[in-house]
Q: What sequence folds into this?
């Protein structure tokens, strides 16, 4: 066929309409930007599994009004550089409308500007206070309680357990300083004091000198604000250094593998705290089934909620763009609509013109205008014989 | 103590550099492979620590030779820089291969933990002392190998003057393999020593790569006694830095040492090859 100038012009004029015509059955594209490797490598694989399973669940039930969800996965390596590269690929090449599952606060902080510039919604499980203080114009939603809320609850637990002198050993993270500030405030109000903090480089192989300096201050309680690999080293070296006081650490550091890889005498009596999923929620039961475990980690629960909320927001607005999700997310996550625990159930109600209020595996999923969750439960555990035993859940 | 443990992979790095004339950054992943080999021998096969260390040496040595034959030797004719860059890529591939087989989770050795010995305001851990002794034994064995065996002597000959060695009929390819086996085996041995005091995970070797490289540069690239001296200086320097610097800057000690050494004495403390 000979292409004349006229046919070329006709095709050129028609091209946008061809694209538009196709857009109606284009899938909703979601990017799973998770820590498959690096310090968060224990969580990324199960998070991705849950994201894909949640999308499959919706797709098998007929999609969002016939529209399928396509998930593309990228690895952050728990590292801001790799996270930014992954986000660029998801946004520029795969054209996703939403990015879910960024885990480390440093990664989320680096990735967030790319998302709001491209009007792509970012759903994160990172805790640093600074994240929702970024000028994100509403493009960040986080299901993890922020540092302030977490530290308030954790320090209150220490006060209840008669801690008077707390010293913090913290990995270098965006929340290390905020955490210590909040611990100091709450300790002071509770009649004790925070006597110091050392921020260390988590890539080191040994923390003996840091520990010597911390123990020199004679703390009765150490707050180990660590990730899993450095926590294992800290616990061993604290034992070797003869420390017998209390130790509190975030639940994401005291993973089952860390606890089982260390000798029981190293972990005995270790306290850990974590925002708790909603154990009674049907969505939590689904995550349990997806992962085949009785105790899914909180991040896997949160990403399940991310995918379901995105699907509901798209169903509500009838559009797949990041901006549409941005505009309608709070119309399906909170408010006076009927409480639902899954997108499939919620979409039926939306189609019938009934409002919905999603409440998921991680909790009520209600958000402040800044994108922080309003409330959630916390659990505190004490390790005995290498196993965490629940102390309290409230 | 840190220095003694660091010295072993640093010697391995320098031994490879001396014979093959390139900086093999895959040494970090080889150290990780050694640590996992030792860990498998210790926990899955129930071997005690000393045989596990030998397993770490042997597996890392073999893995190092195989990886070098497959990826680096074909590139050596293109120059040291090409080979060095390829070794960085090789390191990433090996690290991810380890991750593929063993996963990301940190693991610990089947080993009793002890409280430190204390006295005179100082304390030292039994495990650290054992690690230091193991490191010293490994270094002594290497010195004996280089001084008294035929293979060791030919290795030194190639390191001193490759042209003269080839005129004497020494097979450079074979010596290259021996250097790789011994050098990268030591990296694996050192990787397991690091892991004994901490844990095993796919980044075990990578965490000490900068310190190893700094020790090698400070001591003098290609110099085996230099690597020992450099490792002790870096090990002590990193610990002492806490007295004057915040702990987060500890990682900068290695960079600072490299910077100072390259500015004022590029050949290193005991190195001859400044070129």
A:
């Amino acid at each position: 066929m000979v292409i004349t100038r006229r046919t070329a012009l006709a095709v050129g004029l028609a091209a946008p309409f061809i694209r538009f015509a196709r857009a109606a059955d284009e899938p909703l594209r979601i990017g799973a930007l998770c820590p498959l490797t690096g310090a968060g490598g224990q969580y990324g694989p199960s998070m991705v599994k849950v994201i894909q399973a949640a999308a499959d669940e919706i797709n098998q039930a007929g999609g969002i009004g016939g529209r399928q969800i396509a998930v593309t996965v990228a690895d952050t390596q728990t590292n801001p550089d790799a996270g930014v590269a992954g986000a660029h690929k998801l946004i520029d090449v795969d054209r996703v409308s939403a990015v879910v599952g960024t885990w480390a606060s440093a990664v989320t902080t680096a990735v967030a500007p790319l998302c709001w510039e491209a009007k792509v919604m970012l759903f994160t499980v990172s805790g640093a206070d600074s994240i929702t203080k970024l000028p994100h114009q509403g493009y960040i939603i986080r299901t993890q309680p922020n540092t302030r809320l977490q530290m308030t609850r954790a320090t209150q637990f220490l006060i209840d357990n008669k801690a008077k002198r707390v010293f913090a050993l913290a990995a270098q993270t965006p929340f290390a300083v905020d955490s210590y500030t909040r611990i100091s405030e709450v300790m002071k109000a509770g009649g004790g004091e925070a006597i110091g903090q050392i921020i260390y480089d988590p890539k080191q192989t040994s923390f003996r000198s840091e520990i010597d300096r911390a123990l020199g201050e004679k703390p009765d309680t150490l707050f180990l604000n660590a990730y899993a690999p450095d926590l294992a080293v800290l616990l061993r070296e604290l034992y070797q250094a003869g420390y017998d006081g209390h130790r509190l650490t975030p639940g994401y550091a005291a993973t089952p593998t860390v606890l089982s890889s260390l000798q029981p005498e190293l972990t005995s009596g270790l306290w850990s705290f974590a925002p708790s999923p909603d154990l009674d929620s049907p969505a939590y039961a689904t995550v349990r089934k997806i992962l085949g475990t009785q105790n899914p980690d909180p991040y896997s629960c949160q990403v399940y909620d991310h995918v379901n909320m995105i699907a509901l927001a798209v169903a509500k607005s009838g559009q797949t763009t990041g901006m549409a999700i941005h505009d309608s997310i709070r119309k399906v996550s909170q408010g006076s609509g009927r409480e639902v625990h899954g997108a499939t159930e919620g979409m039926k109600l939306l189609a019938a013109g009934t409002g919905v209020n999603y409440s998921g595996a991680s909790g009520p999923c209600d958000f402040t205008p800044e994108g922080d969750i309003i409330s959630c439960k916390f659990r505190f555990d004490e390790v005995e014989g290498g196993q965490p035993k629940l102390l309290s859940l409230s | 103590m840190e220095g003694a443990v660091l010295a072993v992979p640093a010697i391995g790095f320098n031994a490879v550099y001396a014979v093959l004339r390139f900086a093999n950054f895959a040494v970090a992943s080889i150290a990780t492979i050694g640590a996992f080999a030792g860990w498998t021998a210790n926990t899955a096969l129930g071997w005690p620590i000393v045989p596990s260390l030998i397993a770490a040496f042997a597996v890392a040595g073999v893995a190092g030779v195989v990886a070098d034959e497959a990826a680096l030797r074909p590139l050596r004719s293109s120059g040291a820089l090409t080979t060095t860059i390829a070794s960085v890529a090789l390191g990433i591939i090996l690290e991810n291969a380890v991750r593929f087989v063993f996963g990301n989770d940190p693991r610990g050795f089947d080993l009793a933990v002890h409280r430190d010995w204390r006295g005179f305001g100082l304390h030292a851990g039994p495990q650290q002392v054992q690690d230091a002794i193991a490191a010293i034994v490994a270094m002594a064995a290497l010195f004996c190998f280089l001084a008294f065996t035929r293979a060791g002597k030919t290795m030194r000959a190639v390191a001193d003057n490759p042209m003269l060695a080839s005129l004497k009929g020494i097979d450079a390819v074979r010596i290259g393999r021996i250097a790789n086996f011994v050098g990268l085996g030591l990296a694996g041995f050192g990787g397991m020593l690091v892991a004994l005091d901490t844990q095993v995970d796919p980044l075990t070797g990578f965490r000490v790569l900068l310190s190893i490289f700094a020790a090698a540069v400070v001591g003098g690239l290609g110099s085996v006694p230099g690597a020992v001296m450099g490792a002790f200086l870096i090990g002590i320097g990193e610990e002492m830095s806490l007295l004057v610097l915040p702990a987060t800057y500890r990682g900068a000690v290695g960079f600072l040492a490299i910077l100072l050494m390259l500015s004022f004495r590029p050949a290193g403390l005991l190195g001859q090859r400044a070129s």
In short: Residues 18-23 of chain A have pLDDT under 50 and may be disordered. The interface with chain B takes residues 37-38, 41-42, 172, 198-201, 203-206, 208-210, 213, 228-229, 232-233, 236, 239-242, 255, 257-258, 261-263, 265-266 of chain A (CB under 8 Å).
